[in-house]
Amino acid sequence: MTESNTSATDVDAVIVGAGFAGMYELVRMRRAGFSAVVLEAAHDVGGTWYWNRYPGARCDILSVDYSYSWDPELQQEWTWSERYAAQPEILRYAQFVADKHDLRRDMRFDTRVVSAAWNDDTSRWTIRTDNGDDITCQHYVMATGCLSMPKVPDLEGTDRFLGEVYFTSTWPHDGVDFTGKRVAVIGTGSSAIQSIPLIAAEAAQLTVFQRTPNFSIPARNGPISDERMAAFRADPDAYRAEARLSAAGVPRDTPMEGALMVADEERLARYEAMWEASELLGVTGTFNDTLANAESNETLRNFIHDKIRATVNDPEVAEALCPTNHYVGTKRACLDTNYYETYNRPNVRLVDLRKDPIETVTETGLNTAGESFEFDAIVFATGFDAMTGAIVGVDITGRNGLTLKEKWEHGPVTYLGLMTAGFPNLYMITGPGSPSVLSNMMVSIEQHVDWIADAMIHLRDQGHESIEPTELAETKWVEHSNDFADLTLMPTANSWYMGVNVPGKPQVFLPYPGGVGRYRLTCDEAVERGYLGFALDGPNGRTVNDGIIRPLAPDVQVMLETMAEMGLPPLETMGVEGARAFMEMAGAAMPPGPEVGEIADGKLPGGDGTPLEYRLYRPATAGPHPIVAYYHGGGWVLGSATSDDPLCRYLCVNSNSIIVSVNYRHAPEARFPAAADDGLAAATWIADHADNLGGIPGRLAVAGWSAGANVAAVTAQQAKLAGGPAISGQVLLCPVTDGTTDRASHADNADGYGLTMGVMNWFWDQYCDPTDRADPKASPLLADDLTDLPPALVITCEFDPLRDEGDAYADALGEAGVSVEHVQCPGQTHTAIPAVDALVTSEYARKAMADALRSFSDVHADT
Ligand code: FAD
Ligand code: NAP
Predict the structure, then answer these.
(1) 2 vs 817, higher pLDDT
(2) pLDDT tens, 480-496?
(3) Which H or E run includes 701?
(4) What is the rounded CA–CA span in Å between residue 197 and residue 305?
(5) What is the pTM of this model?
(6) Residue 673: strand, helix, or coil
(7) Which of 116, 462, 490, 809 is 20–30 Å from 195 (CA)?
(8) pLDDT of 364-397, one tens digit each?
(9) CA gap 684, 722 in Å, rounded
(10) What ligand 2 atom has the least distance to the C-alpha of 52?
(11) Residue 857 pLDDT > 90, yes or no?
(12) Is 430 in the pocket of ligand 2 (CB under 6 A)?
C-alpha cells in the first residue's frame, strides 16, 4: 500500500478543494513526484456536485464536453446516460475517478482551511485548518471553486422563520419531500430554474419570488446525439484539442455575421435552429455580435420574449417572466426542462418583486410590501459569492503581512487569473481574471492545473523556490481584461459576474472575457517568453522578468489576429494595382461612419494644374463652417478622396467643420514632389473658394493620416514659406515625418502591427528617390525652421513603425515654440484610429482630432 499524505505536517503542495480542480491537481502533483495533500470541507469528492443536490440539478454544458480529458482510458470507460447528466451521475463520475486513481489516499475530508500565512524566511506557507492543525508547504493551490461560497441570506428576518429552510447550494443528502406542502422559492437563477418544475410537481403550492427574470432555453434532455458522439469517438484527441482553442471550451463553428447583417427571416431561422439545438453556448453564439451590440442583442431578446409569451398562458405572468433590464448573456443564461410551462400549473404563483418587494421574513412565511405569505418551507436559490468568495473566505497573509482581503479590497487583482503579487506560490484554479465561469469549466480547470503543475516543475528544475507575478504585469492584465469587458455588454448587467449580487462587494467584471483559446495561448506565451511578468526567487537570488503580456488594446489585438488568420501576402508583393485594389476592398468592408449633412464631389487644380478629385463633407448644422483640407493615407501610392471616408465623416460631424478630402497625385505615376505640391495647391484653392464651398473665409485647417499627414505637415510648412494660405491648425495622425528608417520603432514595430516596414520602404521607393528624402517637402522633420507654424495635434501610436518619427516631430514643433498637443496612444497601431465604429478603444484619439479642429477654429474666432 502506498503511503498517504493525509496526516503529513509538511508537504510540497497543499491543495484546497476536492472538486474537479483539486482532484486533477492532485493527479498532476503525484505524476510530477510532489508530495501533496488535499484539504476539503465536504465529506467526499465532487465539489459543486457534492453540495448542489437540489431536485433537477444537472450540467448545462453537454456531458461529453463537461468531462475530464486527461485520462484517455476514462474517456472510453465512462458513458454518460444523457445529453445533460444529472447531479447524482456527475457525482458518481467524480467518485469513479477518485476510486480509479486512489485519490482519497491523499485527501483530508471534513476539513476547512481557515487561514494561510507566507513565511519569507522559510519560503513556505503555513496552512491552518478548522481542526487547529497546521500544515506547511511550498506551494498552496486554491482549488476552492468559483461557485462554492453560498451567498449569505440578505433578507431581513431570515433567522425568524420556524418552518423548513433549504439552500439549493447545500441541499440535504437524503433529499426533501415537499408533498402536500406550501413552498416558497426565492430566486430565479439557474438553480431555481432547474428546481422549480420538480418542486412544483410535488408541492401543494409553490410561490416563486422573482427579483430579476432570466433568459432560459429548453434543454431537450435525452440521449446525446449520435452525430456529436461520433465526432468525439472518431478522434477524441482532435475533439479535445479543438475545445481547448475554442471560444468557450466547446468545439463550435464561429459565426461570421452579426445579427443585423442578415435578413429578418434568416435571423429568425437561425434563432429557431438555436432554440431547437438546445445548447447554452448557441444562445449568444448564433451571431458574432450578440454580446457586443445592443441592437443585435435586442433581436435575440425579442425572440426569447416571444417564446415565453407563446408558452405561458397568463399574459401578465408571461410579461413578468420576460427579462427587459439586461441583455441576453450578460447574466448567465439557463437551460431548463419545462420551466416556463410550470407557470401554467394551478398550484404555482409568481410574485414579481420589482412590483412588490420582500420586506421581511416572518415566523410563518414572509411579507412583501403588499401581502403576507405563509409557507411550510422556504427554498433559497439565491446564489453565490462568486469567484472571490471562497478565496478571501480564507484569511490569507502574504509577504510583509499584507492580507489578500486588503489587497483585493477594491476588487481582485491577478495576473492571468492564476497568481497575485505579494503572495508567492499561491495559485488559483479558474481564478478571477481567467475565463473560468464564461467557459466549459472542465477545459479551464485542466488548463490551469497543467499550467500550475508545469510552473512548479520549472521552479524545481531551475532551483528556484518561489514564483509570483510582478505588479506591472498584474496591473496591466487587470486593465486588459477590463478593456475587453468594456467592448462587450457584459458590464451593463446587475450580475454576479460583476459582483452586484453580494451587498458591499466591489463591482468589477470578474472573469476574463477574451475567450478560452486566446487565453490559453496567452498563458503559454508567458511561459515561452521565460515566465514573462513573473519574479522567481531562490537561493541564487531573484530573477525578475517584468513585462506586459498583452500590451495591445483588445479590439486591435482581435483585428490583428483576424488579419493574421487570413494569411494575406504582404501588400508590397501585390504590385501597385493589386495593392490599390486590395485597399479598396478592405475599405469597403469597414463600417461607413456617421451620416453627414451633405456630400459633394468636385475637382480642383493640383500643383501642376492637373484636376484633382475631392469629396466635400458638410455638417448638417447651419453654415458657414470652418474648413479642413484633409489628405488621405496610403503611402502616397494608394487611396483616394473617398478612401478615408469613415474618418472624414466622423471629423465632419464631431468638429462641425466642412472636410474637403483631396485626391492628391499618387506615385509611382507622379513621384515626389507631386503629392507635396498638390497639398499646397489644394489648400490654396480651398482657401480661395471658402465662400463658395460654404466655409468661413480665413478658417482653414489641414489634417491627414500617415502619408496624408506628411502632406498636411508639408502643406503647413509650405504655406508659411509662401505667405499663405493662412492655416489655423494642423492635425497629424501617425505622420510620416522623416525618410530615415533607423529609429527604435522602425525596428520594434517592423512587422505584425498592420503597417510594416516592408511596405513602408516600398512606399518610399515608389514616391521618392533616396536623395530627395532629406528634402523637407518629403521629410518635414528635417526643415531648418519650424517656428511660426500653426498649432498642431500630433497623434502617435505605440505599435506603429512610424511612432518615433511622429514623436520627434511633435517634440521639434514644441521646441520651436509651436503650440502642440501630443497624444500618444498606448496599445494602438498605425491603422487603428481611422477605423471608426470598428475599433472602439481608439475613440478618444478620434475625439481628440475633432476637438483640436474645433479649437483651431475657436482660436480664429477670437482673433
Ligand atoms: P468546486 O466544485 O466548487 O469545488 C471546490 C471545493 O472546495 C468544494 O468542495 C468546497 O467545499 C471546497 N472548499 C472551498 N473552500 C474551502 C476551504 N476553505 N477549505 C476546504 N475546502 C474548501 N460549470 C460548467 O462548466 N458546466 C456546468 O454545467 C456547470 N453546472 C453547474 C451547476 C451548478 C449547480 C453549479 C453551482 C455550478 C456549475 N458549474 C458548471 C460550475 C462548477 O462549479 C464547475 O464546473 C466545477 O464543478 C468547479 O470545480 P472546482 O473543483 O473548481 O470547484
Ligand atoms: P444566481 O444565478 O445568482 O441566482 C440567484 C437568484 O436569487 C437570482 O434570481 C437573484 O436575483 C435571486 N436573489 C438573490 N438574492 C435575493 C434577494 N435578497 N431577494 C430576492 N432575490 C434574490 O445563483 P444560482 O441560480 O445558484 O446560479 C449560480 C451559477 O451557478 C449559475 O449562473 C451557473 O453558472 C451555475 N449553475 C449552473 C447550473 C446548470 O444549469 N448547470 C445550475 C445552477 C447553477 P437577482 O438576479 O436580482 O440578483
Answers:
(1) 817
(2) 999 999 999 999 999 99
(3) strand 695-705
(4) 20
(5) 0.94
(6) coil
(7) 490
(8) 999 999 999 999 999 999 999 999 999 999 999 9
(9) 10
(10) 43
(11) no
(12) no
CB 382 near ligand 2, within 6 Å: yes
Q: What's the gap in Å between 196 CA and the centre of ligand 2?
A: 13
Of 48, 53, 250, the one to substitute when testing ligand 1's pocket (max ligand atoms within 8 A of C-beta) is 48
Span from the CA of 179 to the centroid of ligand 1 (angstroms): 30
3-state secondary structure at position 219: coil
Sheet holding 182-186, edge to edge: 164-167, 377-380, 182-186, 205-210, 348-352
CB distance 59 to ligand 1 below 6 Å: yes
Q: For residues 824 and 845, is the Cβ–Cβ distance under 8 A?
A: no
Contact 543, 536 (CB under 8 A): yes
User: Given a cut of 50, is residue 863 above it in pLDDT?
Assistant: no
Q: Which ligand is nearest to the CA of 149?
A: 1
- Grid coordinates standing for 377? 418551507
Residue 597 has pLDDT above 60, yes or no: yes
> Which residue bears the cell 433568459?
215
In angstroms, what is the span from residue 652 Cα to ligand 1's centroid?
54
Ligand nearest to the CA of 334: 2
pLDDT in tens, 159-210: 999 999 999 999 999 999 999 999 999 999 999 999 999 999 999 999 999 9
pLDDT score of 861 more than 90: no
**Residue 598: its H or E element:** strand 598-605
Ligand 1, residue 19: give the atom nearest the CA: 51
The strand pair at 334-336 and 216-218 is best described as: parallel
Instruction: Read off the pLDDT of each residue in 785-801 and give the average, rounded to a whole number.
Output: 98
CB 66 near ligand 1, within 6 Å:
yes
Evaluate whether 729 touches 789 at the Cβ level (below 8 Å): no
Asked if 252 and 443 touch (Cβ cutoff 8 Å), the reply is no
Write the pLDDT tens digit of every residue in 509-560. Answer: 999 999 999 999 999 999 999 999 999 999 989 999 999 999 999 999 999 9
CA 434 to centroid of ligand 2, rounded, Å:
21
pLDDT for res 832: 97
State the closest ligand 2 atom to the C-alpha of 193, by its place in the atom list counted from 1.
25
Contact (Cβ atoms closer than 8 angstroms) between residue 422 and residue 399:
yes
Show the 3-state SS of 751-804.
CCCCCCHHHHHHHHHHHCCHHHHHCCCCCHHHCCCCCCCCCEEEEEEEECCCHH
Cα 311 to Cα 320: distance, rounded to the nearest angstrom: 13
**Closest Cα to atom 35 of ligand 2:** 190
Packing angle between helix 236-244 and helix 441-462, nearest 10 degrees?
90
Q: Over 60: is that where the pLDDT of 1 sits? A: no
